[in-house]
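Journal club side-thread
Mid-discussion, someone asked how the predicted structure for our own chain would compare to the paper's figures. Pasting it here so we can look after the session.
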Amino acid sequence: MQSPVQSPMQTTVADVISFDGVGLHSGRFVRVAIHPAPANTGILFRRIDVTESRQTIAARPDNVRQARLCTRIVNDDGVGLETVEHIMAAFAGLGVDNAIVDIDGGEAPILDGSSRPVVEAINRAGVRQLGNRRRILVVTAPVSVEHCGGWAKLEPCDRLEIDAEIDFDDTAIGRQRFHYRHGAGSFERELAAARTFCLMRDVAAMQNAGLALGGSLNNAVVVENGSVLNEGGLRMEREFVRHKILDCLGDLYLLGMTMRGRMTASRPGHAMCAKLIDALWNSPACFQIIEDGAAAEHSDGYALPEVAAAAAV
């Protein structure tokens, strides 16, 4: 049976998926339910703790906002949702095109700090093929941005690849590079279990700024003076840069569809990814939308699907 990642057809989850946990930054307990959705819905989040007419936040480029240490999306009514990147990475990694995600708070739960719990939940429910062809955003010309001493570039490639490097002065992290090539099973093998991380010396400052209030050794790797403080250490070689690539994959899925192209980055982060998405989306000569291997429409003629009807599902 063909992997959903390789299928030319759109997909959705086969059954309702539920989980809960605390937000990394807010520290607040939230519940999540992921529902199957029809073709061309995309990924829709619904803040079920607000008025029904203001609930829906589509995971698409025009809703991406820069935020500190997480990814934030905001709808036209100003209703936002933070830390969606690990859920989005799981959808991208498993080839889920359409889903409606109900959440009763303003931040997605951090779970264990990785995408693995979401991946396991999706795999238990299954992924179902739909009758419409998958849309793919094909990068046709280079786009690049710089941010806070780092840089990122998108360029043409025959599949999705992310090649990233990080460099930290703490020797527990140091300089790491990893080149991810997206394919059947690659996300689960290479990225899904990689956890978010921080330096112990930064924790007090983050919490004084109202961030990382839900953080702990149960949901983040913490390093100090060349050592990993978590019992059991790291889950995999180069876990730190792998998690950065996981974040990039989730952020890129906010383009609203699978991307075909190579991202190369030095010191990537959410703010940089937001700038890169914005730069690409506002450079219509640099990408094309295709279906089933044939050009469907050039980027300057493409309109994102309306969300109102799908939000009522």
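Post-session note: Residues 239-252 form the longest helix (14 residues).
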